[in-house]
Design a protein that fits this description.
heterodimer; A: Peroxisomal Thiolase, Chain A, domain 1; globular; B: five-stranded mixed sheet; 4 helices
Chain lengths: ~400, ~140
C-alpha cells in the first residue's frame, strides 16, 4: 500500500550525563523536545500528536510515566501514544511516529524518548525475578557476555577488536558536545588494562549509565517542503521480533535482525549496503557488538565483521563510518538510545552533525535492538526525497 | 483481534466491521486543573471521530467505575437511542490492559453478527478518565 512521504524536520537532544540532577523527568523531556521544535522552527501549538518511548517502567519505578508527563510533553488535548519495546524502544517509537505521517493521519508529530537512569536502578530491574520471564542476572552485561564469547569463537576474532571499537567510539564522542563520556585521555592501553567485568567484556568496553532524552519532529511532504532547513527523508522503516528464549535463536546473529534489515534495504532499494549506505548509527552497548551487527546487517560476510573493524573502515574517515556520535558506548539513556541512533542519521543526511559530520552522507541506516536481542527497529533516511 | 485492509477483509469475513474513525486524546494528569465532572479528552476524541454527528446503534464504553459512564455519555453526546455497553463492560470483567480492546471487540461483534450497522468502542487510561480513545465501526 502506498505511503505518504515523511521527513525529519527537527532534532533535539539533551546533554547526556550520569546524573541530570538539574532537571526532573519532565524537564529532561522538555529540554530535548524544545530543541527539536526550535530546529523545526515550530512551537508546541504546531504539533498534532506526540509519541513517547521509554524502556521498562521498572527502570524508574513509575508506572505508565506518559500519563504524568502528558502536559510536559505539550500533549494536553492531543493524541499521546506510548511505545515500549525495551532497549529498541527509541527506534520503534520513531517508526511509530513516522507511520502516523506515512498513513496520512497527522502532518506534524513530535516524538520523544528518554531514560533517567540516575532515578533508577536498571541493573536491579533487569535482575529481579519477574513472573513468566527469565531473570537477566548481573544486568545486561552478564546476559550478553556469552553471546560475545560465542561470536569470538565462531569468527575466530582476535581479542583486541573490542578495544578498537571502544577506542573509536570514545574518540568520536569527543567531537559530540551532547555525549556523556568525554574521555580526553582515552587510549588503547587504558581500555585494554581496564577491569574485566563480564569476561570477555572489559569495563571500558561497556556503555555508561546515562540520563537523557532525544526528540524529533516528523512532518508530511508539504511540511517538509516548506522547511527552510534541510530535512531527512524517511526511505524505509521496519521492526521485527522473535522470542528471547527461543531455543533455536542464534544469539550471535538473530534472524529477526536479518529479516528487519532485509526489509529496510528492500524498501530503500539497497542491494549493496556496504557501498550504498554512507554511514550507520548502530546500537552497540558493548563494543564487541559492532562486528556482530556489521555481519547481521549485511555490511560484512559472516565471520568477517571484525576484519572490517580492524581495517578502520568504520572510523569517522572510513568507507562506512559507524557511530560517529560516539554511539551507545558513549551515551546510554536506555529508552532514548535507539532514538539517538535514528536522530543522528537524520542529522548526518541533513549535513547538521557538526564536528562529527560524515562528508557526503546522503543515505544512512539507524539501528536499535532490545530485550535480549529480541526486538529490532531500523530505518533508512536520505537527503533526497524517495522516488518511489 | 485481526485487522485486514480492503478486499482482503471482504474475502475472510462475511461482514467486516470497517474502522471509520479512530481518535484518542489525553488530558493533563494535574487533576487540580480539570473539572472532574466532565471529560474534555473524551469529548474531543468523540467529536473528532464524528460520534456526535450520526446515529449510533451501540456504544461499548470502558467505564471501570459506574459514574464514569454518565460522564462519558454526556461528553460524547450519546443519546437514548444508543444501546450502551450491552456486554456489561468493565463492571463485569476488567482485565485492565485489554479492557479497551475488549470494548472494540464487542463493538465489532455487533457489526459481524448483523445486529448493528454503526457502533463505537471506547477505551480509557489514567486516573479520572485522563486519556480516552474512540473507535467507530460500520458495516458495508
Amino acid at each position: 500500500m502506498a505511503k505518504q512521504p515523511c521527513a525529519v524536520i527537527g532534532v533535539g537532544q539533551t546533554k547526556y550525563a550520569a546524573k541530570r540532577e538539574d532537571v526532573s523527568m519532565a524537564g529532561l523531556l522538555r529540554e530535548a523536545a524544545k530543541r527539536a521544535l526550535e530546529d523545526a522552527q515550530m512551537t508546541w501549538a504546531d504539533i498534532d500528536a506526540v509519541v513517547v518511548g521509554k524502556a521498562p517502567d521498572l527502570f524508574e519505578g513509575v508506572m505508565m510515566p506518559e500519563l504524568f508527563l502528558a502536559d510536559a510533553l505539550g500533549a494536553h488535548g492531543k493524541p499521546l501514544l506510548r511505545v515500549h519495546t525495551a532497549g529498541s524502544v527509541g527506534g520503534s517509537t520513531a517508526n511509530v511516529a513516522a507511520s502516523l505521517v506515512q498513513a496520512g493521519v497527522h502532518e506534524r508529530v513530535l516524538t520523544v524518548a528518554f531514560e533517567k537512569q540516575s532515578e533508577s536502578n536498571a541493573m536491579w530491574a533487569l535482575s529481579i525475578p519477574t513472573p513468566f520471564a527469565m531473570p537477566v542476572h548481573a544486568g545486561a552485561g552478564g546476559y550478553f557476555a556469552p553471546h560475545v564469547r560465542a561470536y569470538i569463537r565462531r569468527a575466530n576474532a582476535p581479542d583486541h577488536i573490542g578495544i578498537l571499537v571502544a577506542l573509536k567510539d570514545r574518540t568520536n564522542a569527543l567531537k559530540n558536545p551532547y555525549a556523556h563520556l568525554h574521555q580526553e585521555d582515552v587510549s588503547y592501553e587504558k581500555i585494554r588494562d581496564s577491569m574485566m567485568l563480564w569476561d570477555p567484556i572489559r569495563y571500558e568496553e561497556t556503555c555508561p549509565s546515562s540520563d537523557g532524552a532525544c526528540a524529533m519532529v516528523l512532518g508530511s511532504e508539504s511540511v517538509a517542503e516548506r522547511s527552510e532547513k534541510p530535512v531527512a527523508w524517511v526511505h524505509a522503516t521496519a521492526m521485527r521480533t522473535e522470542p528471547t528464549m527461543l531455543a533455536r535463536q542464534d544469539k550471535v546473529s538473530p534472524q529477526a535482525g536479518r529479516d528487519c534489515v532485509a526489509e529496510v534495504y528492500r524498501q530503500a532499494g539497497v542491494t549493496d549496503p556496504y557501498r550504498q549506505i554512507d554511514m550507520a548509527e548502530i546500537y552497540v552497548p558493548f563494543s564487541w557488538f559492532e562486528p556482530m551487527w556489521l555481519e547481521n546487517l549485511g555490511f560484512a560476510a559472516e565471520g568477517e565483521g571484525w576484519k572490517l573493524v580492524e581495517s578502520g573502515a568504520t572510523d569517522l574517515g572510513g568507507d562506512l563510518p559507524v557511530n560517529p556520535s560516539g554511539g551507545v558506548m558513549s551515551s546510554n539513556p536506555i529508552g532514548a538510545s535507539g532514538m539517538i541512533r535514528f536522530a543522528e542519521t537524520a542529522l548526518q543526511v541533513r549535513g547538521l552533525a557538526g564536528e562529527h559530520q560524515v562528508d557526503g552522507a546522503r543515505l544512512a541506516l539507524g539501528h536499535a535492538y532490545g530485550g535480549g536481542s529480541q526486538f529490532f527497529a531500523m530505518w533508512i533516511v536520505g537527503s533526497e526525497k524517495p522516488t518511489a | 483481534m485481526v485487522l485486514a485492509a480492503g478486499d482482503l477483509a471482504r474475502d475472510v469475513c462475511s461482514r467486516p466491521a470497517w474502522i471509520r474513525a479512530f481518535e484518542h486524546r489525553v488530558d493533563t494528569q494535574n487533576i487540580g486543573m480539570l473539572d472532574l465532572t466532565i471529560s474534555n479528552s473524551a469529548a474531543k476524541a468523540a467529536a473528532a471521530a464524528g460520534v456526535t454527528d450520526d446515529r449510533l446503534d451501540v456504544a461499548e464504553l470502558h467505564a471501570p467505575f459506574s459514574h464514569q459512564e454518565l460522564i462519558l455519555r454526556e461528553a460524547m453526546g450519546i443519546g437514548d437511542g444508543t444501546e450502551v455497553t450491552p456486554s456489561g463492560g468493565a463492571l463485569v470483567a476488567n482485565p485492565m490492559f485489554s479492557g479497551g480492546l475488549s470494548r472494540i471487540g464487542e463493538a465489532a461483534r455487533r457489526i459481524h453478527d448483523g445486529t448493528a450497522d454503526r457502533t463505537m468502542g471506547h477505551a480509557t487510561s489514567g486516573p479520572c478518565l485522563q486519556q480516552n480513545l474512540v473507535c467507530v465501526l460500520e458495516g458495508e
